[in-house]
């Protein structure tokens, strides 16, 4: 089932749904930790499960002669495989991420063909992060510079067009394409209006729906949706919520994700004596956020628990139980 159809169904039936985003296991780990994270949530019938994709990393290893040798490593491979394993085990829709970073157009095409063979018809198309140490994004020599180009490649495959036009008659893929939106603007954008114009380019290139970056402020989320609508963006927009879990996230989340934290949330976290109390505050805040967005008519919410999902279980029980 396409994500857009899930959103329409939830809207039509007046039954809000939720999704969760998880990381593939670290290289060398098995799938059990992922299954243990998902198992409890199936009680509440998640609409879909997003699986992130991580580009290569760089590390420097000291050689015997004392010089540093640059090595490329991949810490979390397996996005396609873990997506298929989740779908097979739970019979739930999965949304693997497809990124530009570190991949050629041919790498991307191969991954999309694999997904099509596996019956996975939903993807989230992202540019991806810079390599560690890079100040600006550097695309693969045979890859894409931005997410709009990536969306265009996926949309072209849906019409039977491959990179080299080497197939004249073929079965068309049916990918439902999601993209990212930023209620507080992408860190590289000069302002939010400029960022929304770029978002519209992704939609015009073929994106079917939008998932927002995490935001802890419903007013900013709803204002963003309204501004998108006024800019002519009509596709579904699914808000992203991150359950707060550690006191260190007071500085980590603004640094890494460039989001503002409401002072009311900051005050509540600062009063906590340990991360157990912070986790409780995060659950309560996510429930308040979710309830407010549902009351505003949002049919599907996207949560970023990323690792352990005990907090997500409690949130889902409050909102969707």
What best-fitting shape do the alpha-carbon axes yield?
globular
Which strand order spans the largest sheet, edge to edge or round the barrel? 1-2-5-6-7-8-9-10
Query: Number of DSSP helices?
Result: 11
Helix content: 40-55%
The fraction of residues in strands falls at: 15-25%
Stretches where pLDDT falls below 50 for ≥5 residues?
A: none
Q: Report how far apart the termini are.
A: 22 Å
Determine Rg (CA atoms, Å).
Answer: 20 Å
Average pLDDT reading: 93
SSE pattern, N- to C-terminal? HEHEEEHEHEHEHEHEHHHEH
Secondary structural class: alpha/beta
Main sheet: strands, sense, barrel? 8 strands, parallel, barrel
Q: Got a strand count?
A: 10
Descriptive notes:
The chain contains eleven helices and ten strands. It is an alpha/beta fold. An eight-stranded parallel β-barrel has the order 1-2-5-6-7-8-9-10, surrounded by six helices. Strands 3-4 form a two-stranded antiparallel sheet. Helix 5 runs parallel beside helix 6 (192-205) and helix 10 runs parallel beside helix 11. The radius of gyration is 20 Å and the shape is globular. The two termini are 22 Å apart.
